[in-house]
């Protein structure tokens, strides 16, 4: 099964819809639209939140709205363009987020990382997407513009600002994929996650005690060596990264 991808549809139509330039439904012939584009997108997001991207198709969204699939084509050309709208809406900062500003560059980038983690926790399907062609809509650009506030008043080149933000996002996305991504909805495993780890435990214990993996055995002897959660793993790596950024530019914070 191929990985769903942003930017896989008609870029002109996606951009028109993202920036609300297509005249929406008002100018089209036929009966008055039953829904707004925002309702269609919100319904698709709720479906993906509940069942993952694998369950997302035009018929499924139409069923959620209590209509037929053909009705949705009055709003979006297809699933690919709908996915672009969903990503932009799901990652758009709230007014409260935009009003929150870090006291310095470091705190602001931590807020960026924590907010991104919260987005992934609320919408794990975002982690299922190939976003090599990123959505450049008003929601995502508003978030990026807010992120750039970290560097106001600092003498850091624009290219390096982009690289730093990219680094923060890569850290969060990598940790979130390891800890937040849901099991496949089309071919779900027969066991729960705890059952899976319980099945592995005796093999891992034997491996650690058998002498073939001495470094693994040494690490495992510490009682809390593996007692961390995903958000903690993200923050550990993020803090080390920000330490390096601060040292490189001799920044306070």
Largest sheet: none
By DSSP, the count of extended strands is 0
CATH class of the largest domain: Mainly Alpha
Q: Gap between N and C termini, in Å? A: 46 Å
Number of helices: 12
Q: What is the name of the CATH superfamily of the largest domain?
A: Tetracycline Repressor, domain 2
* CATH fold label of the largest domain: Tetracycline Repressor, domain 2
Radius of gyration: 22 Å
- How much strand content do the residues show? under 5%
- Structure class: mainly alpha
Low-confidence stretches: none
Number of separate structural domains: 2
Give the CATH architecture of the largest domain. Answer: Orthogonal Bundle
What's the helix-strand series?
HHHHHHHHHHHH
**Mean of all residue-level pLDDT scores:** 91
């Amino acid at each position: 099964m191929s990985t769903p991808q942003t930017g896989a549809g008609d870029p002109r139509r996606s951009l028109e819809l993202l920036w609300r330039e297509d005249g929406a439904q008002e100018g089209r012939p036929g009966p008055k639209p039953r829904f707004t584009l925002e309702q269609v997108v919100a319904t698709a997001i709720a479906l993906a939140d509940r069942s993952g991207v694998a369950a997302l198709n035009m018929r499924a969204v139409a069923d959620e709205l209590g209509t037929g699939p053909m009705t949705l084509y009055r709003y979006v050309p297809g699933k690919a363009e709908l996915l672009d709208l969903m990503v932009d809406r799901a990652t758009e900062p709230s007014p409260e987020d935009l009003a929150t500003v870090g006291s310095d560059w470091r705190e602001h980038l931590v807020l960026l990382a924590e907010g991104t983690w919260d987005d992934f926790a609320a919408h794990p399907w975002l982690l299922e997407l190939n976003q090599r062609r990123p959505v450049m809509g008003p929601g995502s650009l508003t978030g990026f513009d807010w992120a750039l506030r970290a560097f106001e008043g600092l003498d850091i080149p624009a290219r390096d600002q982009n690289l730093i933000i990219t680094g923060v996002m890569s850290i969060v996305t990598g940790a979130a994929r390891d800890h937040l991504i849901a099991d496949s909805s089309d071919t779900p495993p027969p066991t729960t996650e705890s059952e899976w780890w319980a099945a592995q435990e005796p093999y891992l214990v034997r491996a650690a005690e058998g002498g073939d993996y001495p470094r693994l055995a040494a690490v495992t002897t510490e009682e809390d060596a593996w007692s961390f959660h995903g958000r903690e793993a993200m923050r550990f790596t993020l803090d080390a990264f920000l330490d390096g950024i601060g040292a490189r530019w001799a920044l306070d914070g």
